[in-house]
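hi!! sorry for the late reply, been swamped w classes. u asked for the two structures so here they r. pasted raw, havent cleaned anything up. first the sequence of the first protein and right below it the tokens
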Amino acid sequence: MLSNKSIQRITFLLALLAWLLLIAADLTGLFKAMRRSPSAIPQWLPQLLLAFFVLLQFIYFRSNIGKAESINFTDLLWRVFVTGLMATLGSLLLLGVGNAIEGYRIGKSILVQYLFYHINIALVLMFLTSTFVVWKRLILYQKTKSLLRFWKGFEYLLVGSLALWVFMPRVNTGFSIIMMLIFASLAYGLVLSVNLKWVAYLNFRQKWKSILLILLVLLYLSYFTRIMLSATQDWFEVLGGPKDGAWSFLNLRLNPVAVSLLGFTFIYALFSLLVILFNLPTSSVFEQKLEEVINFQRLSQAIQAGEKEEHVYNILLDSSISAVVADAAWLEINDQDGEGDLILQRSITDEELLRVKKSISKGIVQSVLERERSKSVTSHKLVATLKDPTFRSMSVYPLLVQNKQIGTLVLLKEVADGFNREMVDIINTFVNQASVSIENFRLLSEALENERYKEELKIAQRVQQALLPKKLASNGCFSIHAFSQAADEVGGDYYDTFQLSDNRYAVIIGDVSGKGTSAAFNMSQMKGVFHSLVEVAQDPKDFLVNANAALSRCLEKTSFITISYFIIDTSTKTVEFARAGHCPTLYFDGSTGKAEFFQNKGLGLGILRNSNFEKHVHVNTIEYKPNDVLLLYTDGITEANNADGEEFGYDRLKDLLEQFAQEPPEKMQTSLIESVYNFSGKRFLNDDYSMVIVKFNPN
């Protein structure tokens, strides 16, 4: 089978050949007409060459877009913009050259004008075809069987219109047939244009970028509409006009495919622009993310509420189906009590389930179904295409407890390539949280029978360590290092990072009220809220307000969480931050050698559970310089006591940072923690203590 690059090269060369042959055929006919002698070239041949040119361009651009699961919406719009820019500049260049040579003999040559018009035809059709392919990718995002069927009908109508137009002289049809084809195609396009699900997955910045790109695309379309309406008539009259029908196919106004493509691309661009504008104030993405947070919290709270394992399985199954709009699913749990495997099914019969299992070929997906999962398996490999009469794609997720597969979640769709990367990531989050909840449940049950308190602490410690990131996001502009130690083997300190873009990074540190298992559970909820909202929130204030709203629904009335949230932008060399009741951040100025505490204020999450919380959020921005240090910590460090009951305090921490600020973050952390140990006279403190150090590197 040919690769995409091979297909692109072949179709490009064939399209170029078809265009050159079209020019040669037309020139031959033109010379014959100028000499008033009959042409040996049949009238339908140039039309056939033009039709081949359009079809080859469609194949070229379709192979150039890539698979739907790798779609980046703004990149697709950028592709349309660049193609339109090239086509428009080419057309304007021809116009400028034509105006420049208009007074000369060559400028009045019908052959030169003829060549210019052919180039304009190629540019117009190239832009319309490439835009059509991109619109197809956007429309078929999260495709369904009915949508796929309707789109195929649209394509068949366009191909049929093209074929009928080629052989139009052979049948007794006229302008009415062309208008019927155009109206039918535009009606199809109008119905398809309401499929704009991709807009919901744009963040605020991407929406503004998309608005600009779509406006430019509409500008290009307006320009090409002018060419088709006015310039076409001018050149057409130069080539013979209505008096001679030999070149009537060159009149794009009579080409049903060209007019249909122009109308469809314009309608979809206009609809996209309006929907994005309406979605700017309130984005449906936040609603979806909020639903994911709630489902995440339901999985976290199921064990706390004293429910059985089967309740967690049902929540996992229903939440997963809802998140990816699966057509069917089942969850199979291994036999543990000698009562046989537990299988929970949704919209699938026993017969269909067995048939799907048999249709899976040997490979990674089957090994997961047979509970032989390798540790090297990654998420994107757990998606498969099925040769089943009902279901065409599936996604499989192993349910692991203590590194042992206890079950398998299988999601099915009736369309091929029905699962993209974002869907897989969402379900992985649900499965991982369900695994943690089930693991906690089972280990807690064992602890109650044997050594309840000791086992409970070990479980919570594993949960806490699993929730803390193994690697912190950064780039060459800054270095980052973190350290955390729980008191009595378990605590509620939390820190994390997230790369928002090439130059923007989110950093968070938090402290959950209380200790023990409940603090660890609340910590897991904080992690879920962070990862669900970090890409949606536009700034620290937006994040804190939405995080408070989400956590207020699940935290106990006596529980709260303090955090400090930062956005580091290495392109502007700024740090934007807000504080929700957490310890004041310590900042070292590399140019002065002095450290100061940030004085911004704020209430902890869950303390004020209404809209008044927003009034207590204050956002600050600073510009960092090389060798500046940002020190984030929890109160376990400043409240560490020595034998006399004296606290370590803020002043000592400030003096020590000034002393060790020239060291790398790892060594700086070691020196600071050793100083705390030396002060307290012991290596284990009474409270959880964590520290995150960010040092900004020289240019």
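now the second protein. again sequence first, tokens right under
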Amino acid sequence: MKTKSIFCIALTLAVGMGLKAQQNRAAAAFTAMPKKVNVEASPVLMTIDGRDITQAEFEYIYNKNNTNNAIDKKTLDEYVDLFINFKLKVIEAENTGLDTMPSFINELAGYRTQLAKPYLTDRVAEEKECRKEYERLKQEVEVSHILVRIEDPDTLIAYKKAMDAYTELLRGKDFATVAKKYSEDPSALENGGYLGYFTALMTVEPFENAMYTLPIGKISRPIRTYYGYHVIKVHSRRPTVGKVKVSHIMKQAHFTEDSLKKVKAKEDIDALYQRVKNGENFAELAKQNSDDRGSAQRGGELNWFGVGQMVREFEQAAFALKEKGDVSQPVKSHYGWHIIKLIDKKGLEPYEKKEAEIMRALQNDERSLIGKRSFLKKLRKDYKYKVDEIGLQGMYQLVQMYPPTDSLFPIESAKYTIPLFSFADKTYSQLDFSEYLIVNPHSSATEAWKIVNEKLDNFVDRELMAYEDAQLENKYPDFRFLMQEYHDGILLFEISNREVWEKATKDEEGLNRYFGKHKAEYAWNEPHFKGHIFSCKDKETAKLVKKLLKKAPIDSIDTYVSSRINNDSVTFVKVEKGLWKNGDKDVIDKLAFKKKGVAVVVPEDLPIVFIDGKMLKKGPENYKDVRGAVTSDYRDWLETEWVKDLRAKYPVKINQEVLKLIKE
């Protein structure tokens, strides 16, 4: 998505604002919490081409483009003038039909989708969940589990297997033994279901909730998650150990490898450990000897990690190190042998620093819906959502006879037309709901009433959210003004690009005319040399270049010469085009300005250097000599003339009484 729209207003109203600052403003606009704008009985400040602009809209834009966020009485009149110019350009864009272009409509819709997000969720509920997770991060939980996957459509089979495991545990059987018997977690045969220490945001929500609510030593009944049914045991809890940053040297010795390789890996790691003890540089040893080539390139350095992110043996050894620089003895893991060096440790960061990270993590599972669910619940209450029981019973009967997946459902559902539910000022019929079911027929439920209830909830949620979305401009003046700002900004960019910016860079005739009328303004106080510097491989090349210069087009000498002498493998001549004054370049100082005592350093492979051109004593020869300055001035002139035309074309009326109130 382009970032041009909102910035054009700033470009027009706040000259000098840097592009980076504008980009930061747009990023903030996408994520900012809704703000209140006072628009109660806002009077009309001005009318442009018959269109009213209120005091509230003006002050909203003004305050966004002023660093002190307050009305500056000394600059208000000037700002009003700039604001009028801005609005005139937007009106011109609308009158030329730019706001009907598909590109404009799609871009504005994309911005609106982003800007609406903070208004269509319960931020209080999200904040509450975020703080709950932060509190949980203060504690780590030692857990084991048994997993039974759900592979059959009949979940009862998996649930019964999980309950069998749970029953055996209640009878006192060893957890590891039962895990090896029942668990479908591949690691269970090796670890007996033991997972070690976990903390918040490391697993899915139902599993995490059990971790933090089960008493120590207790076992949960089967808990359903995305992965299947889990039986969980909490062994202990402890305060968080935070995170560590370490380097390591690894010699690979995977458990599947033969015994000779394992013996060799142990001998190698012992020898490396002795070298570390003797004071050799750990990072260099890692670079030269570690089998973990990814970290070896960084001297063995790994990213920060906390509990549950490394294999257990490595994690325990890393967290056991106390002081920066401490080195572990060789540690055996599933992957081989490691020597670990502690770089640093840190505890849990303050909530303000962790909040954004936690919010991002919450988007990865069902917790991402907490704000939306709470918001929809509130909408049902605020808009007085009500189900018509007769209509609902009718849908139960319809779906009982003809499920939505039945080919006869579209035909039979057309007979059901009475009201089904209502909210706000809208009423939905059975037929409205049936049309939704035809498009969304599938459900995991099998009983008619469950299918209807599930699908009705989804349909109502969709319609409530769409209704609320459509009310945003009416409910939130700040959102309305922000959308107006993006609307106007896109149009301003397009119309300004068409009338001024693109014309100023591509209108060669216009640039030449402008330069001709204002040539005296570009005069300079000291001579400039205009021409080319030729650096040649030898005297023969220089002779050939000089011969070619007699035929070369004046505007393309560099390409003309280079293309006829150089080839893909050898550079015989290098050509540099420019406009230089005394002191700009040593070779020009010596050869053009005849400055004595100037030492010119030439490339060894291109030692023969000469120049060709002319001395311009009073000023540029044509606009191309000062193209940047002329283009800028020509753009300003086009802008000024355009605004004059717009002011003559569209009437502007200012309510001086309202303007006086703003000044006061």
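hope this helps!! also noticed smth abt the second:
The chain has five domains: 1-95+476-522+624-664, 139-239, 243-347, 383-473, 524-618.
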